[in-house]
Amino acid sequence: MEKMYSVRMQDDYPMRINKYLAHEGISTRRGADELITRKKVLVNGRVAVLGDKINKGDKVTIRGVSSPKTHLYFAYNKPTGVITHSPQFGEKDIKQSAGLPKDVFPVGRLDKDSSGLIILTNDGRVTERLLSPMRDHDKEYRVRTAEPLRESFKKAMEGGVNIEGYLTAPCTVRKTGPKSFNITLTEGKKHQIRRMVAAMHNQVVELERVRILNIRLDDLAEGAWRPIEGEELKTFLAQLGMK
User: Fold this and answer.
1) 10 and 33 co-located in one domain
2) Identified catalytic residue from 103, 111, 113, 219
3) 14 cis-preceded (ω within 30 degrees of 0)
4) 183-209 in b/e burial notation, b at 16+ Cβ within 10 A?
5) Residues 55, 97: one domain?
6) Which residues contact 99 (CB under 8 A, 6 or more apart)?
7) CA 119 to CA 161: how far, in whole Å?
8) Which domain holds residue 37?
């Protein structure tokens, strides 16, 4: 059995076939490459090859599709010490720790020493829409520092911090104690908050992500997960442009 998809998205064309399949929620990009390698993907009746690009109006057909894929979405509270991706010898990753369905994957990263909210899904459309630097999706973190925050800390952080030649985008900071604050970012450079705090002559000793868009950690226990569904899911997908 085959299922046909019409190219109808608003992104720029031509577009790589694996990116298109990920946007449609058929697969992740890596999974799409596997489908292409197995000759399961046709473009306008022709067997697709890796690296193919498609244009608006093209017909993409997937061989062997018997029923629509059920998309799953979960919020997970990652403990410190758990690896988001690619664990090394002796380390444990999210999928080994959480006991979630095997076909879901984490969207984005939290470093080993950080904790908090991670979204897991089998919907390949979410990854680029949530993580692309072209999209200003906000994420909130709770931070505790080694030293008291300076008087100028909030203003300096919100105005942008130079981290090794890169000036961070404006953000929102709310002091919650002498050595603690919440920060809301719309970008996600590697170890960004830790590097920003270091540039302010301080050090992060505890970092927890508490919100991604409308998805909140709230009282979800460390190491636990819950499904994202109902109005919460509807709002989340709408904010990603996936109504």
Assistant:
1) yes
2) 111
3) yes
4) bebeeeeeebbbbbbeebebebeebbb
5) no
6) none
7) 28
8) 2-63
- Kindly state the percentage of the chain with pLDDT values over 70: 88
Tell me how crowded residue 227 is: count the other CB atoms within 10 A of its CB.
12
Q: Is 111 a catalytic residue?
A: yes
- Which pLDDT value is given to residue 96? 65
Reported as a single tens digit per residue, the pLDDT across 40-75 is 899 998 999 998 998 888 888 888 765 556 889 999
98 lies in the same domain as 218: yes
Distance CA 108, CA 131 (A): 7
- Choosing from 63, 81, 102, the residue where a domain stops is 63
Three-class SS of residue 139?
A: strand
Task: Assess whether 127 and 219 both reside in one domain.
Answer: yes
Count of the separate structural domains present in the chain: 3
Q: Does some domain include residue 42?
A: yes
Is there a domain that residue 88 lies in?
A: yes
Instruction: Indicate the range of 56-60, 159-163, 233-237 predicted with least confidence.
Output: 56-60
Q: Would 144 be classed as within a structural domain?
A: yes
From 127-141, 143-157, 192-206, 208-222, the region with the lowest mean pLDDT: 127-141
Asked if pLDDT for residue 12 goes beyond 80, the answer is no
Helix (H/G/I), strand (E/B), else coil: 32: helix
The b/e string for 4-21 (b: 16+ C-beta within 10 A; e otherwise) is: eeebeeeeeeebbbbbbb
35 plus 16 within the same structural domain: yes
- For residue 87, give the 3-state DSSP assignment: coil
